[in-house]
Automatic annotation (TrEMBL):
PANTHER family per the UniProt record, alphabetical: 3-KETOSTEROID-DELTA-1-DEHYDROGENASE (PTHR43260), KSDD-LIKE STEROID DEHYDROGENASE RV0785 (PTHR43260:SF1)
NCBIfam families given in the database record: PRK12834.1
Family matches, as SUPFAM superfamilies: FAD/NAD(P)-binding domain
Keywords, alphabetical: Flavoprotein, Oxidoreductase
Protein name: Oxidoreductase
Length: 552
């Protein structure tokens, strides 16, 4: 059978595109190397944050936002610098960025609302920046948490997907690994690959790669939505940005092993142009999962701004390297030390109020839509998932004095040796700045400014207090690792999601969406992300690709 479209990858972008094509009564074949338990890909694991502009949730929280302000922030964050011509690596990414900000300020929320997606009322402030108005970061809170987190984003698309499956309009074939894009002349006409053995692996667990047989399928249009390279440490090191120095000696994995980037090379072999491969997004606040699902499983802390952040030698980071302000600058600062870890030191009140963990499974109250459980977050005590890490996590230690805490930090091994007197001197200097409501300590200034936003004051940012005062004990230290996550470059695409070839022209019949395409254009984010834009980029680029194919 010849299909109207073949989609390679059953993540969020692939599901969105498949349902858009099916709604035009066109027949779609969806292939994925993983078992059906992993349908939806990384979106299922996500916290469910989405970037929206001038939303009702923002207005109710007293936030004034505009498309112009959002575009200013996007440009200051992306730092597009490969725009020399229509052949420039940023040419299409810049155009996708403008289209995406229009979408986020326009129909994005109403479209999602029509699908039954709802939002938590308090808007989060991610990537706060820490420089000038036209530099990196969100000028205002824009991180909208979906009520039900990642699974709730997937739910309406999975419902439509399964409805079309029952009608025979969509065919879904898990355990089908694509190894080649078939060409007839310069046109993509099909895919070939291997059928892998049945696997009972649960979501996120590694599945076997035992080959059973081979396949070939043909279609008018081929859409690649296979994700990025986040679990492929070899590709991460190969493409590591030169300006960040040598690749880190150690990283933990923020995504399952199947996020391997295979299809980028396969599409390139078929003539696709890969751009910005040296742009990627890795977090600096990673901790080892006490109950890992995949090998080397890392979880990201979503920190409030108050923790004292020390490099591996015990030296406090300066602006803009405060928790939650500038991920890429913090990564550079850590890399410059020659080590791949750093430390948080914080009080009991800080860890209870300001620590959140990324991921649907780490936020069962939000994921399961339990209002009574969510309300417990404002009560004393750490949220249950955070408490579990305090008790079981190998990266957490606590003590009733700084001396005992530093001793425990040194006992965790790896080095370098931390000087308790040096750390005490820095924290004592910070504590003295609390005698007045004004200060020259830029982190304290940022904390006080954050608390002028009532969302932060209510649920996110602890009132500044002295860390060395025993009444604020015990003290906690958390060893932080670099955790791999997102690919910001990829297959270059035009505004119809058509893949661009080496000659700068669209390849006939070949499309791409989601992370494999840098979330649009081969790099909609440029060098940095404003957060809430990865899921949103999959939604937007998947919708564009699906509608483009449907209208062919």
């Amino acid at each position: 059978m010849k299909y109207d479209a073949i989609i390679v990858g059953a993540g969020l972008a692939g599901l969105v595109a498949a349902t858009e094509i099916a709604e035009a009564n066109k027949h779609v074949l969806v292939l994925d190397q993983e078992p059906e338990a992993s349908i939806g890909g990384q979106a299922w694991w996500s916290f469910g944050g989405l970037f929206l502009v001038n939303s009702p949730e923002q207005r109710r929280m007293g936030i004034k936002d505009t498309k112009e302000l959002a575009w200013q922030d996007w440009l200051g964050t992306a730092g597009f610098d490969r725009l020399e011509s229509s052949q420039g690596e940023d040419f299409w990414g810049h155009k996708w960025a403008e289209a995406y900000v229009d979408f986020a300020a326009g129909e994005k929320r109403s479209w999602l609302h029509s699908l039954g997606i709802r939002f938590f009322p308090v808007v989060g402030w991610a990537e706060r920046g820490g420089s000038l108005a036209d530099g990196h970061g969100n000028s205002v809170p824009r991180f909208h948490i979906v009520w039900g987190t990642g699974p709730a984003i997937l739910a309406p698309f999975l419902h439509k997907f399964n409805t079309f499956r029952k009608q025979g309009i969509i065919k879904y074939r898990p355990r089908h690994r694509v190894d080649q894009i078939l060409l007839q002349g310069n046109k993509a006409t099909g895919v070939a690959g291997t059928i892998l053995a049945t696997s009972n692996a649960a979501r996120g667990e590694p599945s076997n790669r035992d080959v059973q047989s081979e396949f070939e399928f043909y279609a008018e249009h081929i859409l690649v939505t296979s994700g990025g390279i986040g679990a492929n440490m070899e590709l991460i090191k190969k493409n590591w940005p030169k300006w960040l120095g040598e690749p880190p000696g150690q990283m933990i994995a923020g995504v399952p092993a199947h996020v391997d980037g295979r299809m980028i090379g396969i599409a390139e072999a078929a003539g696709a142009r890969v751009v910005n491969p040296d742009r990627m997004w890795h977090y600096t606040e990673g901790i080892r999962n006490h109950t890992p699902v995949w090998d080397n499983h890392g979880i990201r802390i979503l920190p409030g701004p108050s923790s004292i952040w020390l490099d591996a030698t015990g030296k406090r980071f300066g602006s803009p390297n405060f928790p939650g302000f500038d991920t890429l600058a913090s990564l550079k600062a850590i890399q410059d030390t020659g080590y791949s870890h750093s430390w948080f030191i914080l009080s009991k009140a800080m860890i209870e109020r300001e620590f959140a963990l990324s991921g649907s499974e780490q936020n069962p109250d939000l994921t399961n839509k339990k209002i009574s459980h969510v309300l417990k977050r404002i009560l004393p005590g750490a949220p249950d998932p955070v408490q579990a890490f305090i008790e079981k996590g190998e990266d957490f230690v606590s003590a009733h004095s700084l001396s005992a805490l530093v001793h425990k930090m040194n006992s965790m091994g790896e080095g370098p040796w931390l000087d308790e007197a040096f750390i005490h001197k820095q924290i004592a200097a910070r504590d003295r700045e609390l005698d007045n409501r004004f200060s020259k300590d830029q982190q304290l200034m940022a904390i006080r400014q954050a608390r002028t936003y009532r969302g932060d004051k209510w649920v996110r940012v602890e009132k500044p207090h002295r860390l060395l005062d025993p009444k604020n004990g015990p003290l906690f230290a958390v060893k932080l690792h670099l955790v791999s996550r997102k690919t910001l470059g990829g297959l270059q695409t035009d505004l119809s999601a058509r893949v661009i070839g080496a000659d700068g022209k669209p390849l006939d019949g070949l499309f791409a969406a989601g992370e494999v395409a840098g979330f649009g254009g081969g790099g909609v984010h440029g060098y940095r992300a404003l957060e809430g834009t990865f899921l949103g980029g999959c939604l937007f680029s998947g919708r564009v690709a699906g509608r483009s194919i449907a209208n062919q």
